[in-house]
Amino acid sequence: MIELRSADKAYWTLHGVVTALTDIDIAAPGGRVLAVTGGAGSGKSTLLRLLALQEAPDAGEVRLFGRPLDVAHAAGLEAIRAQHRITPVENAHATIRLALTDALTKLPRLLLWDDADRDLDGDLPGPALGRIARLAHERGIAVVIAGRDASVLARYADDIAVLDDGQLVEFGPADVVPTVLPAGHGTRRGRRPLPPQPAARRTGSRLSLFEPALAL
User: Fold this and answer.
1) Per-block average pLDDT, block size 10, for the chain (216 residues)?
2) Which domains, ranges and CATH numbers included, belong to the chain?
3) Does the CA dihedral 4-66-190-48 come out positive or negative?
């Protein structure tokens, strides 16, 4: 569904320019769950903001359904997000549970959830991640989840991207990509292509993360 090609992102700070992402090639196809993992400061949140069209890369290309996007203007990004139902889980809600439910009521075509490995309002995140993965597979939704605990995310992901110091060091199927990398790992390796994107299925009526019919 959405793809970054050779994407770079940097920020100005009081201490100078901080490079957040360098030369990122990644895709989030419909009907699959992509897990983005890495240590603190590796670029996970920045990558999700680019995929959610909340920010534009400084260099590189963003493609949606195979077509390049003009991402130069913030107003244009907002319109594209609304048109294609690109929905990040917002942390402004009182609880993560409410944030997830609100995101799913928008019938997203692309759902993005940062810090997806943390406790879900006192409960473990596993049941919610399992239901989201099931919705992705059944309804053709593209899902991107991010967090530091790769061992948790890998249980529910079809594909894994590992970031280290703003670089994509691993990317491929969850049963192939290692979820534990050696300390100091930062050498870019050959990237494995994603499996073919499955045909998108019709979305039904209002989605609910917590409806009993979706229980694991």
Assistant:
1) 95 90 96 94 95 94 92 84 89 68 85 83 72 91 93 92 94 79 44 40 38 32
2) 2-181 (3.40.50.300)
3) positive
